[in-house]
């Protein structure tokens, strides 16, 4: 097992994903509007988790492969459709070039 997977952040991220999956499985029980989450779904929660994890994983010494495995996707290609782009990040990247 990769040493970065022993970090506290890894386990917190993994635990959060399991909560997301639990919520996905129980959507018939949970009414997102009653929780104050207008326009949310189990899929939007999964997309948000994967996007945030993809942006932060390198800070923890990990890679997109770690996010892929946490999400349970069989390939990076499958996972990439879940990751939303960030306009500000693109601007900063262009400014570096």
Written overview of the protein:
The protein is globular, with a radius of gyration of 15 Å. 58% of the residues lie in helices and 0% in strands. With 97 residues, the protein is mostly helical. It has five helices and no strands. The protein has one domain. Helix 2 runs antiparallel to helix 3.
Q: What oligomeric state do the depicted chains represent?
A: single chain
What is the radius of gyration computed over CA atoms, rounded to a whole number of angstroms?
Answer: 15 Å
> Count the helices. How many?
5
Tell me the helix content: 55-70%
Stretches where pLDDT is under 50 for at least 5 consecutive residues are 25-29
The dominant shape is globular
Order of helices and strands: HHHHH
Number of domains: 1
- Tell me what portion of residues adopts beta-strand conformation: under 5%
Which structural class do the helices and strands define? mainly alpha
List keywords for this structure.
mainly alpha, 97 residues
Strand-helix topology:
Layout: H1 8-25, H2 42-56, H3 64-71, H4 76-80, H5 87-96
Provide a compact summary of the structure:
The protein has 97 residues and is an all-alpha fold. The chain contains 5 helices and no strands.
């Amino acid at each position: 097992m990769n040493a970065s997977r022993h970090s506290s952040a890894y386990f917190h991220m993994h635990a959060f994903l399991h909560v997301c999956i639990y919520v996905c499985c129980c959507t018939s029980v949970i009414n997102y509007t009653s929780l104050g989450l207008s326009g949310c779904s189990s899929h939007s929660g999964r997309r948000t988790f994967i996007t945030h994890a993809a942006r932060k994983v390198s800070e923890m010494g990990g890679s997109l492969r770690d996010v892929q495995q946490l999400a349970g996707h069989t390939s990076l290609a499958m996972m990439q459709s879940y990751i939303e782009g960030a306009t500000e990040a693109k601007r900063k990247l262009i400014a570096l070039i």
